[in-house]
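Supplementary Note 3. Input sequence used for the single-chain structure prediction.
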Amino acid sequence: MRRQLNLLRVVSFVVIGVCLLAVPALAQRGEGKAMIDPSVLAELDAEGEATFWVLFREQADLSPAHAIRDWNERGTYVYERLIATAESSQARVRALLVAWGAEMKPFWIMNVIEVKTHDGALLVVLAAQPEVAEIVAPPEVEQIEMVPGIEWHHSESIEWNIEHIRAPLVWSTHGVRGEEVVIGSIDGGVQYDHPALAEHYRGNLGGGAFDHNYNWYDPDFVCGSPSIEPCDPDGHGTATTGVAVGDDGGANQIGVAPGARFMMAATNFGVSSVLAAMQWMLAPTDLNGESPRPDLRPHVVNNSWGFGGGTTIFQAAVQAWVAAGIFPVFAIGNEGPNCSTGRSPGVYLEAYAVGAHDIGDNIWVSSSRGPSLFGPVKPNMTAPGVDIRTSWFGSAYITGSATSVSTPHVTGVVALMLSLNPELIGKAATIRRHLDHSAIDVSDLSCGGDPWNNNVWGEGRLDAFDAVSLLLIDGFESGDTSAWSATVP
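The predicted structure, written as discrete structure tokens, is reproduced below.
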């Protein structure tokens, strides 16, 4: 075996020696060869090693999943199709990488292997494999940070932003607060026992007992090794989760859907750990990373993170979520007021992206704008995101501004919708239609679009009561909007 391996290395070095006579040629897709990202070559040249993703040509056909109504059956179908596709198409390349002694992390949610090597010959060998579509440098992912805000003092325990979107009217009129709905979140962590969050954590068994299996994932060991319970090093995940579900039962009613339960995947926002978190959301595992349970996946996932540029590199993962019935909500970013500043994955067609406005219904100056390179108007809508009071680590509360805190408003409203009508679960197109048609139009054509759907406000401002009330309009779920006039009183 060692003799064969040495022979392979000699042949490969000869190949790479010829190819490197003209380095730009490596970046071209030759006949039967995968394209190699020039930045991978540049990193290898500058650092002596490179980390890159090997993308595979074969993609699982998940289209039949959309017709599966049973939640458990649908999740299992998507999971098994993705696993089978990855195992069959990656097998030969995985064996090659093992023989080469390269570091690798295979993923099944979007059929990719992350590779780390100091050997340039390996790039040429990988590019020659017929299964390989492309070799790329992964994007740099960032948490969408909050900036300090001004606290609005008032006599009520319900925060201004929750009142503003009329969530309490949903609670009182329709009698739902998100019950039986599970919200997932990919963020920096969470203080699960925060007074405003403890009762809403899915791992809370009652009586002071908690089970973090299938409810907590920490691929970066943010909270220790082993990571046996959630923590939050910077407070960001505690803050975003608070907007979605927070309520301490007293003077701190900070969440849109306090009847929903949440689960958390923590990450330090390294690109491979974010992808691992997305994969875990589709099939959560126990604390040992074993015994995946796609039936325990969340119904909606909040994502207050993203990356710049127009890469489609995470699109297959978002599509897999949608195929499994998970509704994906993403922050559009804090790079406004310039146009075309929306972050991926929020700018993907499949993602529902959220911008931010203030208490006076003015767009937040830093809220990112469209248009998107992928065609649709972005963001999809806006929600309160300025001077938002929410939970913070250390059992404290903080007031901040960002699209990262406008996003969980929409996540919470989706939970309210699914709680009132569980038949809506998994129907991404119908959920979008409810959100879009219930939004309050705001015209701003500075980045293009129409008065009722533009690249600053999207479809308009979020209105929780109208979004949920649309569920009671006959024919609306089938696409008949003729019965919808303007605003449900």
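The longest helix spans residues 71-100. The domain at 142-472 is CATH 3.40.50.200 (Rossmann fold).
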